[in-house]
Amino acid sequence: MAREIAEVPAVAAPLCAGWAEAERVASVLRARRFPFAVVCGRGSSGHAGVYLRYLIETRCGLAVSASAPSVVTGYDRPPRMEGALFITISQSGRSPDLVAATRTARQCGALTLALVNDAASPAAAAADLVLPIEAGPERAVAATKTVVNSMVASAALVARWSGDDALIRGLAALPGRLAAASNLDWSAWTADLAGAPAAFVTGRGHGLGSVREIALKLAETLRLPALGYSAAELRHGPRAAIQPGTPVLAFRQDDQLAEGIDALVQDLRRADLRVHACGGPNGNLPWLAPDHAACDPIAMLVPAYRAIEREARRRGLDPDAPVGLTKITETL
């Protein structure tokens, strides 16, 4: 896991500037009009799908839904998807439910696209279009570089699909920011997790996929129950469960939603709760000067990943092979 986190800047760099694969797929999407889009993914790939959803809805103005593969595999009720865009995100491309959902969407009239690390996988074979995320082999059970590259590939695709030059420039700067973020020490946050019965991670908008991803990494790598909530959703009930012994990590990108995240951090601190914030005037974790608001949540993953991996080893846990988990998860 440590080695693969260290590879992140290098494997992301080819996707960040002039990536021909993104332009190839984007040219197909620009030629079509879709009534809606559906994103399909599990676990970390599902979190990359949350990120992609925000990109598509904010840049392309297209409503995006999350796929429920069990509607196809369990209930045998294929939904109507004529003319829609169906995007599958998967590291291995081998989970039977994702393959079946992709194949069914294609049969039901959707244009299907697979974002996969293995371009020869069954999910890729089931799709009309394939966008390989090109992260290279990933052996640790906890996905890191494939998550980053799934998000980078998503941003590169949407930037070219929508003609967003600012996002293209943000991506060009991202490899350097990923490298700089690799040197940031977030051990103050993970030290606060010692003895905690649970933990919370929060943020909004483009940061929500990263929020949910880091909550998952806490659960699978540190065996710590962790919940990732939108900063807005947190106020609608889960706030009552935050206690002095349940630390909160807040991700804050510099965009229209920043004020709400700042207000939440301030409210929690006034209640004498333990909050670690990345970004903005309330940030207490080392961070970089803000750059593109859709790219910064990707870079925020790196110091969080590093801190979690090191904390696992400090506790005598094996971050590369968590108990009860396998690298390729096959569900139906």
UniProtKB/TrEMBL annotation:
<dbReference type="InterPro" id="IPR046348">
    <property type="entry name" value="SIS_dom_sf"/>
</dbReference>
<dbReference type="InterPro" id="IPR035466">
    <property type="entry name" value="GlmS/AgaS_SIS"/>
</dbReference>
<dbReference type="InterPro" id="IPR001347">
    <property type="entry name" value="SIS_dom"/>
</dbReference>
<dbReference type="GO" id="GO:0008483">
    <property type="term" value="F:transaminase activity"/>
</dbReference>
<protein>
    <submittedName>
        <fullName>Glucosamine-fructose-6-phosphate aminotransferase</fullName>
    </submittedName>
</protein>
<dbReference type="GO" id="GO:0097367">
    <property type="term" value="F:carbohydrate derivative binding"/>
</dbReference>
<feature type="domain" description="SIS">
    <location>
        <begin position="25"/>
        <end position="177"/>
    </location>
</feature>
<keyword id="KW-0677">Repeat</keyword>
<dbReference type="Pfam" id="PF01380">
    <property type="entry name" value="SIS"/>
</dbReference>
<feature type="domain" description="SIS">
    <location>
        <begin position="189"/>
        <end position="332"/>
    </location>
</feature>
<dbReference type="InterPro" id="IPR035490">
    <property type="entry name" value="GlmS/FrlB_SIS"/>
</dbReference>
<keyword id="KW-0032">Aminotransferase</keyword>
<keyword id="KW-0808">Transferase</keyword>
<dbReference type="GO" id="GO:1901135">
    <property type="term" value="P:carbohydrate derivative metabolic process"/>
</dbReference>
